[in-house]
Amino acid sequence: MGFEQDGIIQVEKEELKELIKGDRKDPIIIDVRELEEYEEAHIPGVPLIPMGNIPNVVKQLDKEQSYLFVCRSGGRSQNVAMYLQSQGFKHVQNYFGGMLAWDGEVQSGLEWVVKDVSELKK
């Protein structure tokens, strides 16, 4: 089970693998790295919203939904979670260790770059 850091729940690798394997829609897992990083390697089925785009879409995100953020090392995703928490989101989590710690399946290419936040409800 994860732990808490700066008020944000930190999800560890094995827990994330279980969430992905379970094909659950809650939490919604979002990669917040840059386009090039995502294209090089990402967790299959996980959509991309680069960190810099989060302020542009924050009003479209559901504050009651649970979100789990992923980045390269866990730093940017932690900042995104803290930012959303400051905007009134109560259910935000960070993948601790990021893609550097990920040893599960990866995919390359631009599988799912979010253009409209309503896509996340699929």
TrEMBL record:
One Pfam family linked to the record: Rhodanese
GO molecular function, one term: nucleotidyltransferase activity
Domain Rhodanese: 23-108
KW Transferase (keyword) present: yes
UniProt KW keywords: Nucleotidyltransferase, Transferase
Protein origin, superkingdom: Bacteria
UniProt keyword Transferase present: yes
Record InterPro entries: GlpE_sulfurtransferase, Rhodanese-like_dom, Rhodanese-like_dom_sf
Name used for this protein in its record: Putative adenylyltransferase/sulfurtransferase MoeZ
Native source organism of the sequence: Halalkalibacter krulwichiae
Underlying gene: moeZ_2
